[in-house]
Amino acid sequence: MTDDELDRALFALPLEEPPAGLHAQIMAATVLRPAPLFRTWELWLLAGAVALVGWLTVWIFSSSPEAGTRLTDSMVAGMRALGLFSRATYVWLGIGLSSVWWISRLPFMASPRSTVYNR
Amino acid sequence: MGVALLAEPPPANVAAVAPSDDDLIALALAGRGDAFGTLVERYERAVYHLAFRTMREAEEAKDAAQEAWIKAYRALASFRPGAKFATWIFTICYRVCCDRLATRKRFTGDEPPDVADPSDGPERTYEAAEESARLRAAIAALPEKYRVAITLFHLQGQQYEEIAAVLDLPLGTVKTHLFRAKDLLRAALGPTAQRRTK
């Protein structure tokens, strides 16, 4: 068998057929894969913040015996300042939430996608 | 078919319609998933072919090909514009296969023997002509380094520099591998050729 004959035979050889579903699996693992809720650095930041808050809480309560009372008092004062003890706040909150719900039920047409990639 | 697809330029009327690999990569980087899908469609078969020839097991080849595409997708931004996408994806695929072969060797102590197994191969799956089947079996029986070199030769044509880039080997070594591989193939296919010429 000559070199040319062998080359011709090699080039005439069909490529292996990929198994069914490989394309879908590749797409699912790449472009169609949902983005993670948090990135790695965000998770580290969150864990650091939680650890810091935990350490501060332990430190505050262990350093002062009246810390619990003071914290409760300051929280109640803060809630009062925000109006959370007022009935009017909850009435307005209810009106706002129901408005959002009604608006979301209105039958607006969805805008069509501007371009569809055509290969 | 592989060479016709990958090495030769497309016909003029097709080139006017089909976007180039660089265009598709740029679109994919801009967030167009369908452009990456087109790239996958274009090279999926060749990448699987390389993985299959290297791993010699359909299931492992499938996993290796998928891993190669995932790696390519993640590293798409590092693709150098102007470079050949085929060479890049083949390089990724070949490295994935090498890693998997090394792992397999570490866990099992050895890799499958460099001998074609007639009960487990593409011959069983496809009803190819006798000559094609013999050639496939002969390729499968080659030692790994020759098998991969001849597979890339099949995929990329006589572009030895590209093959050397994928295998990360000197050009001379690639030529030697191909020479030896062809020698072994000729020896394996010799009787058929002789029968054909009589």
SSE map:
The complex is a heterodimer of chains A (119) and B (198).
Chain A: H1 3-12, H2 22-29, H3 40-63, H4 67-81, H5 87-105
Chain B: H1 2-6, H2 12-17, H3 21-29, H4 33-55, H5 58-74, H6 85-108, H7 122-125, H8 130-140, H9 144-156, H10 160-167, H11 171-197
Helix pairs in contact in B: 3-4, 4-5, 4-6, 4-9, 5-6, 6-10, 8-11, 9-10, 9-11, 10-11
Keywords:
heterodimer, A: elongated, B: 198 residues, mainly alpha, Rna Polymerase Sigma Factor, Chain: A, Arc Repressor Mutant, subunit A, 2 domains, 74% helix, 0% strand, globular
How would you describe what is shown here?
Chain A has helices spanning 3-12, 22-29, 40-63, 67-81, 87-105. With 119 residues, chain A is an all-alpha fold. The mean pLDDT of chain A is 86. Chain B folds into two domains: 19-112, Rna Polymerase Sigma Factor, Chain: A (Orthogonal Bundle); 128-188, Winged helix-like DNA-binding domain superfamily/Winged helix DNA-binding domain (Arc Repressor Mutant, subunit A). Chain B has eleven helices and no strands. The longest helix of chain B is centred in the C-terminal third of the chain and has 27 residues, at 171-197. Chain B is globular, with a radius of gyration of 18 Å. Classes of the chains: A mainly alpha (119), B mainly alpha (198). Chain A binds chain B through residues 1, 3, 5-6, 9-19, 22-23, 25-27, 29-32, 117, 119, and chain B through 1-4, 18-19, 27-28, 32-38, 40-41, 44-46, 48-49, 52-53, 58, 61-62, 65-66, 69-70, 73, 122, 125-126, 128, 131-132, 135-136, 150, 153-155, 157, 182, 185-186, 189-190, 192-193.
**Poorly predicted residue ranges of chain B:** 1-5, 113-128, 193-198
| Main β sheet profile of chain A | none
Tally the structural domains of chain B: 2
Helical proportion of chain B, percent range: over 70%
Helix-strand string of chain B: HHHHHHHHHHH
Q: Which CATH class of the largest domain in chain B applies here?
A: Mainly Alpha
The CATH superfamily of the largest domain in chain B turns out to be RNA polymerase sigma factor, region 2, helix turn helix motif
* Estimated radius of gyration of chain B: 18 Å
